[in-house]
Amino acid sequence: MTSQPGDKIKILVIQGPTASGKTGLAIRLAEAIGGEIVNADSMQVYKGMDIGTAKPSKDLQNKVPHHLIDIVSPEQNFSVGDFRKEAVKAIADIHARGAKPIIVGGTGLYIRALLKGLAEVPPADDEYRMELQELLERKGGEFLLSQLALVDLVSATALHPNDHVRIIRALEVFRLTGKPISEFRGCHGFMTEDYSYLKIGIRVERAELYARINHRVEEMINDGFIDEVRGLLALGYGRELKSMRSIGYREICSYLSGETDLDKAVSLIKRNTRHYGKRQETWLRGDPEISWVEYPKSFDTIQNHVIAFFD
Questions:
Q1: How far is CA 213 from the centre of its chain?
Q2: In this structure, are 29 and 106 located in the same domain?
Q3: Which pTM was predicted?
Q4: How confident is the model at residue 3 (pLDDT cuts 50, 70, 90)?
Q5: 22 annotated as ligand-binding
Q6: Residue 17 annotated as lining a ligand binding site
Q7: In the prediction, which pLDDT does 4 show?
Q8: Same domain, 212 and 181
Q9: Which Pfam families does the annotation name (predicted)?
């Protein structure tokens, strides 16, 4: 496909809550249309974190080219800005070789930043962030969120007390600028559009989704997830790292440190993943651009729709 000056690259975006079947759909569509996959999952970027992030197997990665998987070490911070920069490069490379870019992942903020751009907020203040992290450990997420509500009620209302990363970032931005992060986002409006895109969202009934999540967690344990976490700790990747505080890893760390037993840890992973899936659904339902599909039931219809979009 040859671009004319001013033409926008066409990209397919596949979204859905965790365990909805995004990887399976993306692989089948990539094979059908000559596509390559760009990962938009905030955890699959980390090397060595395979089982707990439900990373596509090496066989699948060999079957269809994947980008932005295993690109940073667990101790490195990988921001939404980092994602956008790397994804833009990957998409340009895929397009230049005549293949079709397929963006796949459940991190909604990554996809919004790619498609709409990023607000110009200040860089991190590591010293103040450490102070907030210590405050979080002493007083908890509810307290931190209450402090955010005093200076940025718009952001505080939109955040869950467990969303520690975004609460800390919002407090940090206010400390650095005297302005709420919601003001930066409001001024920006997320209106930059560099691509022509088709968004597909996989719809799964809540009971079925929860059953899939529970089954996936059990498979993770059977596939060696505990040894994966034990190995990461042995390499010096401590529990304080952002990557190691993610769902699954933090619960297994608690088990390995003797703070809880395995049954309790597994139960917590299932519960926390279900809650995460519900939050993803809420985020996605607010996006009017998504075309909702049932997969694998409607694969032929999905495929025809995608082929028509790229033609």
A1: 16
A2: yes
A3: 0.81
A4: very low
A5: yes
A6: yes
A7: 36
A8: no
A9: IPPT (PF01715)
Say whether both 266 and 151 belong to one domain: no
Residue 19 counted as an annotated binding residue: yes
Q: What is the mean pLDDT of residues 45-63?
A: 97
Query: What's the confidence (pLDDT) of residue 125?
Result: 77
Is the pLDDT assigned to residue 179 strictly greater than 90? no
Residues 6+ apart with CB under 8 A from 52: 43, 220, 225, 228, 229, 246, 248, 249, 252
Is 18 marked as a binding-site residue? yes
DSSP letter at 47 equals T
**pLDDT band per the 50, 70, 90 thresholds, residue 253:** very high
Any known ligand binding at 179? no
Same domain, 271 and 178: no
Q: Residue 290: which residues within 8 A CB-CB, separation 6 or more? A: 15, 199, 200, 201, 284
Please identify, among 188, 212, 232, the residue that sits at the C-terminal boundary of a domain. 188
CATH code of the domain covering residue 290: 3.40.50.300
In a domain, 2, yes or no: no
